[in-house]
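If you are new to this repository, start here. Below is one unmodified record pulled from the training split, so you can see the exact layout before writing a loader.
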Amino acid sequence: MSDEPSFFNLYRHNFARVAVAVPRSHVADPAANARETIALMREADARHAALTLFPELGLSSYACDDLFHQRALLDACLAALNDVLAASRDIESVCIVGVPLEIETLLFNCAVVVRRGRILGVVPKTYLPNYREFYEPRQFARADRLLHESISLLGQSDIPCGNALLFRFEQQPMLTFHIEICEDLWVPIPPSSFAALAGATVLLNLSASNVTVGKAEFRRELVGGQSARCLAAYAYSAAGYGESTTDLAWDGHGIVYENGNALAQTRRFLDASQCIVADIDLDRLTSERMRQTTFGDTAHAHRAECARFRTIPVAAALPRTIRLPLERVYERFPYVPSDPAYRDERCREIYDIQVQGLVTRMRAAKVSRLVIGISGGLDSTLALLVCMRAVTALQLPNTAVVACMLPGFGTSERTLDQARRLVAALGCEAREIDIRPSCERMLRDIGHPYANGEPVHDLTFENVQAGERTSHLFRLANQVGGLVVGTGDLSELALGFCTYGVGDHMSHYGVNASVPKTLIEYMVRRSAQWGTLGEQASKALMDVLDTDISPELIPPGAAGQMQRSEETVGPYSLQDFNLYYLLRFGYRPSKVAFLAWSAWHDVTRGSWPDIPDEKKRAYDIGTIKHWLGVLVQRFFGGQQFKRTCLPNSPKVGSGGSLSPRGDYRAPSDSTADAWLAELAAVPDEEDRG
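And here is the target side for that same chain:
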């Protein structure tokens, strides 16, 4: 086997697999609890988890009450921990187990970090609850009662001990974890807050946490919120079946969040041991911390607290050379929520943002008319729907929208018919202007061969049409006293697939500039399905959706084939995926390719939100590499000047805006060489080894 990292290995791309284990508990039976723990340790290790987290006091069981003062139980817990240590000698995963430990004549509720037969550290619980059903101070001492920073245990000496320990993987410094125990998370300022500021990217919580009605949702909000505030991953393991139900009940709730997003969750109330894994994206966490400069400001403000933390090196070997795909599912359409109910909510919110932007601009400009070019394609269709909502919000008639159809040399009867039907169904003021005569005049004026009858369909031929359309729209706007509404979208701007200046690049106000093509398609589809615009409008919208995306600047070929945008710039579904991870997180092209392969190489993996069957495609790594190269070249290598002088347009989503005023600033004269060189590391075909 090669010693080189496999491209199809999650650890190569700065992921870390974390396991959350919930063993079936045996009250006051440490030997049985050790057997359950060891079995789950081996299961997690077989799944190549770097870390495996267990519940609070898992080796004793949590609900032992005053039995914790019995020597027989404490001795049995030490024996159980010794069994776990022995079993860990052939386990690479770093395991964190809960156990009561007597230290300097005090009893502490501890997390013990073990790997390969060694104890890497001991973390006592910081905050002990003493209210309602909890009375832990009856048995345990707080972490600040420790007298020394290291202890001896089970024949090992100089073991770091305290609640301000960071454990950092030597092979992956971005994988730095901190441990807190149950109640530590429920206080106003959890210890993990300072740990994150001190450098921890993965926060672990050993918990018991009995269940009451509604508590599971509160846990999710608590864990998710802490992970979001700390720009970290947070794993939580709570006690389950087998714990004493004398007065309480337990649901075995294990959860993993990453920066506010849920990654994995156990089955609650399962009468068996279970183990879940989540693949943590360390690049995402460190990237967010780098971008969000207030995170660093907060660390500086609390530098005294951060200085308390000691860093413990972890020499665990990460399995980089084997083929190890993600278990985490990356949605193919990151701009489109996978949950249907949430998609509708998102769709309505995007409309609200676009409409608010346009209404505010109309009021500021003191105009009551909108002028828009309608092609019968996706972008102009969504922009028209936004215009209609804007004039409605201003209590203006539908005829306040002047919808202009501007057929040129490449316009098909299909799209022109769709445009006419949609405009008629919406009740706009319709204008139709054939731009071919004015285009022919310009082609003659500049001496283009087409004016002499030669079928030269070059870039000049195309851009003359785009420029004529925009020129007509601006002059029409002057005539009616209105604003020209831009239709260009985020995907086209990223790819530089728009005509600069006097072309589809320019308008008085753009409404789609931070809405990608895949999201536009969904919004138009939902508008048709809602049916609020009438049957005829819905039919026209569905026809638009069934039409290939085309600039329609070149006449049809001999066989009637139309110009197709995706043949030049790549499938928009794939390019929107690539763009999201390049723009939102600044990932290396090789990592973007790995994520794209993870999401797109298998049509059965992930969700297809309202996508017709004929559009459900899979892409191999070679195809992904090719089209990612096109995006990288066009995005970083020469098209930035088009984005530097974008018309005003509202930022819609956190996935990014390319406006230099709203989100993205870059030099117009940079090259794509560094990104293309990094992309070269991506294989051209899949390694099945």
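Two things worth knowing about this chain: The longest helix spans residues 340-365. The chain has 21 helices and 20 strands.
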